[in-house]
Amino acid sequence: MLPYKELARVDKLVHEPARLAILSALSACTLAEFLFLQELTGLTKGNLSSHLSKLENANLVAIDKYFVRKKIPQTTIRITEEGRAAVQNHWKHLESIHRTIRQQGALKDRTSLNQLSISDPKSPLSKNG
């Protein structure tokens, strides 16, 4: 399969930029407080909440809500083992696709250079020049 077609097959739940940012940030720590995660990702409260709900429904993150000193709401988010595996697999998949594209491009470039050196007698790569 061509690597470009493979890009269309990535996990869209994880690949969406905001959710990928959330999962990547959470994979680097044990847990994060909502406002800290908001600051890291640059998302609005509503946008972050919406994406977290989707990730929680897919069991990729766990969300705990409680009150500090009975008054101050606190929300913490942690990535689940399933979420950690999903984001790691996603990055590996993208790296594999990228590597394949680069390799195919390198082969194409070599072919182009070989054709150029044969067909252009003034080329510095030419055997005749």
Question: What does this protein structure show overall?
Answer:
The chain has 129 residues and is of the alpha+beta class. It has a single domain, classed as Arc Repressor Mutant, subunit A (Orthogonal Bundle). Helix content is 62%, strand content 14%. It has 6 helices and 3 strands; from the N terminus they run H-H-H-E-H-H-E-E-H. The chain has a 3-stranded antiparallel β-sheet with strand order 1-3-2. A hairpin with a 3-residue loop joins strand 2 (61-68) and strand 3 (72-79). It is elongated and about 65 Å long. The mean pLDDT is 85.
- Overall structural class, as computed from helix and strand content, comes to alpha+beta
Tell me about the largest β-sheet.
3 strands, antiparallel
Strand order of the largest sheet: 1-3-2
Number of helices: 6
**Reported CATH architecture:** Orthogonal Bundle
Brief account:
This is Winged helix DNA-binding domain-containing protein. With 129 residues, this protein is of the alpha+beta class. It has helices at residues 3-7, 12-15, 17-27, 34-41, 45-57, 81-119; strands spanning 32-33, 61-68, 72-79.
